[in-house]
Specification:
Structural class: alpha+beta
Number of domains: 2
Number of strands: 9
Order of helices and strands: HHHHHEEEEHEEEEEH
Strand content: 15-25%
Shape: elongated
Distance between the termini: 43 Å
Largest sheet: 6 strands, mixed
Number of helices: 7
Strand order of the largest sheet: 4-8-9-7-6-5
């Protein structure tokens, strides 16, 4: 999981908790979709404190679920990620039922009057929309991150197009080898600033006890693995889920690098 995504996630959760804290105190009703567009006369028909607390509790519930989603993404634990998403949808469904039954947020004096605006429903729908935007953004990043890299071997360099992609000059490569082990067997190490989403895809910056800091573009369960030793720079590891594709790329890279170093 990239640092940028981690920061965005933390900021979103923090913002939701700040708003929720204010709402629980009966403040910030103007932030509630539906209620904030009512006339003063319409607002008198609602129990503002009850409405604020309801939306505040819902935001806290969603924030806690997003923490599970974040932990699942960062650690690669699938059940935490999907469990967090499932709990959010569950919380939203329960909130919609509560918001649309029992006139819980109407003042007793206005119970005989039919409300022109369904503020609780609008508030819940706004939160659902916010959550969907977050999940779609995370989902898009995960889909992009899970895709295998596109590697192009040019006359004097190697281009890796992917999340954390880069360009490598032949002159910077100290040695190229094909290791008959998967990256898991070699040692993925600790993720520093990289993608380690659900599944075996590993991309970006990692650090192991043996190789130190390194850059991965691998399917960590697949054998073999290409190793580009970069001298004083971070070593680079590549592999595909299809072993034949990894071997073919190694042969192309080895031939191109060897030819590029010939006088």
């Amino acid at each position: 999981m990239g640092t940028v995504l981690l920061v965005v996630f933390v900021l979103v959760i923090a913002a939701l908790l700040v708003v929720a804290t204010s709402l629980l105190q009966g403040k910030g009703a103007f932030l509630i979709a539906g209620y904030n567009t009512m006339s003063q006369e319409e607002k008198k028909g609602y129990d503002v404190l009850a409405l604020c607390r309801f939306v505040g509790i819902l935001l806290i519930a969603i924030s806690l679920c997003l923490v599970l989603v974040l932990v699942g993404l960062h650690s690669g634990i699938a059940w935490l990620f999907y469990g967090g998403i499932g709990l959010v949808f569950g919380a939203v469904i329960v909130a919609l039922i509560i918001a649309n039954t029992g006139n819980r947020f109407r003042n007793k004096k206005s119970m005989s009057k039919k409300p022109k605006t369904t503020a609780p429903r609008m508030a819940v729908l706004a939160i659902v929309f916010l959550f969907c935007v977050i999940i779609l953004a995370v989902g898009a990043l995960m889909v992009y991150g899970a895709q295998e890299p596109t590697v192009k071997v040019l006359d004097n360099s190697i281009q890796i197009k992917s999340l954390y992609g880069l360009s490598i000059d032949f002159s910077d490569i100290y040695y190229i080898s094909l290791i008959e082990k998967s990256m898991d067997e070699i040692g993925v190490g600790q993720r520093i600033n990289g993608y380690g989403g659900l599944g075996d895809t590993r991309k970006g910056n990692f650090k192991s006890d043996y190789y130190g800091e390194m850059i991965l573009f691998v399917a960590s369960n697949s054998t073999p693995t290409i190793c580009l030793e970069m001298g004083h720079n971070k070593d680079i590891f590549l592999s595909f889920r299809d072993s034949a594709k990894t071997i073919e790329l190694y042969e192309i890279m080895f031939e191109a690098i060897s030819a590029g170093r010939m006088p």
